[in-house]
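Extended Data, panel c. Modelled sequence:
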Amino acid sequence: MKEVTANFNAKEIEREVQEYWRTHGIYKAVRQYRSSGKAFFFVDGPPYTTGQIHLGTAWNKIIKDSLLRYQRMNGRNVIDRAGYDMHGLPIEVKVEQTLGFSSKKDIEKFGIEHFIEQCREFAIRNKNLMDAQFESLGIWLDFPNAYQTIKPGYIEAAWWTLARAEEKGMLERGYRVVNWCPRCETAIADAEVEYWDETDPSVFVKFPIKGKENEYLVIWTTTPWTLPANVAVAVAKEFVYARVRATKAGREEYLWMAEPLIKPVLKKGRYQQFEALETRTGTELAGWEYDSPLAEQIPLQREIAHRVVTADFVAMENTGLVHIAPGHGWDDYVLGTKESLAIVCPVDGAGKFLPAAGIFAGKFVRDANGDVLDALGDHLLATEKITHRYGHCWRCKTPIIFRATSQWFLKASEIRDLMLSEVEKVTWYPEWAGSARFYDWIKEARDWCISRQRYWGIPIPVWVCEKCDKYRVIGTIAELEKASGKAVPDPHRPYVDKVTIPCTCGGEMHRVEDIFDVWFDSAVASWAT
């Protein structure tokens, strides 16, 4: 009897199997064989075309492939769409690195059109590379017909979606605080913020109470650079605050802070003697007015009516009084809107102070912390260092800032209850993924900032009149061509930026320069495919 030698060479077996699949068209044959079965629709959550696949990308595809094979083996007609995410900051940053760019100014100097073509070529090249790598894993998806977010038809699906949102009154142009990357000079989503430890100043500052001599509200902050944008101090309604007579180096001062925090605060300030003279609740402090300790250095601060307000996010820590800068924090912004406070943001897109910031103009905000502390002079009660978790741009790793800017929003908060009811209708595997994690995420959803101040992405299809400020949302390329009377060969920037529309007022409408948040590309995949 002839001895049979088994082949245990994994690479050779893989090559032979894949060769058999290719020469016999097994994938297509299985699709055809199951075409009369009950439909099972699958849209691939797309990987970014930023380079070669990695272990996580491979694992993602292998799990999905196993599920689809299981469905086919059970007689289902699997309608599968592979796909690729080919826009967005991830690709822009990769191209910038290749070109040796460090800022948006480099892109503008290079030329938006040239940069866009570099991004397009980079995305397509990596898409083709990833096709081959996924196929070598044995993944059964129709890669030659994969959806690509850069295609005109896909872009139109995003435009159509925004036009429907506008019809339903869900699109809003607003001035709000967003996560901002000062290197990329754009808003970024919460999901695009990575956190790790940074060391920052921990400072206690005295705000002079209006009409009182040597009497102050004591606040605490880890972002001294936001003090030029201060407009209010927040207290908790039910907290008890004390007026403390404190002496240091022969100087007598009267300081207001939460009563339980007197000793630790004054110890940091190295006061030799102190005595609590009276107490008031936060409600009683509300409405008090004070002056900025930076009024001499920043003319803008002399124009603001600073006052004490109450807020439910004030904690019994540090001093129990919170410095409020609605132009540089989400909670501060919400409170500022509620209390009709000024929304002050004297910072440009690159994170540098504008002329409105007085002596700090031109300085990068985080680098200006020391300058602000110097300018505070005797109003600085104490300063230390603190190491805490701080947000960074997930692509370029730059520490983010919070910045009030004009953006476009979808009113997600208005359909929160509807979304939650839909979540409850879904069968989730595992169950907690929907009933807990996804449900809780939707429950906390804010209005979605869909605009980005970048280049390589789906252009937001909003044209604004330079004369009357009226805007129009365009839903298809054909609609744009009809409205403008011009052909649109490519719906990307900068080509579509050149297309103008006559306004009914006699003015001319120009497209807003923003592009969509790249997550919007993903959001429309179900119907864009």
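The domain at 196-394 is CATH 3.90.740.10 (Isoleucyl-tRNA Synthetase; domain 2). This feature is highlighted in the accompanying rendering.
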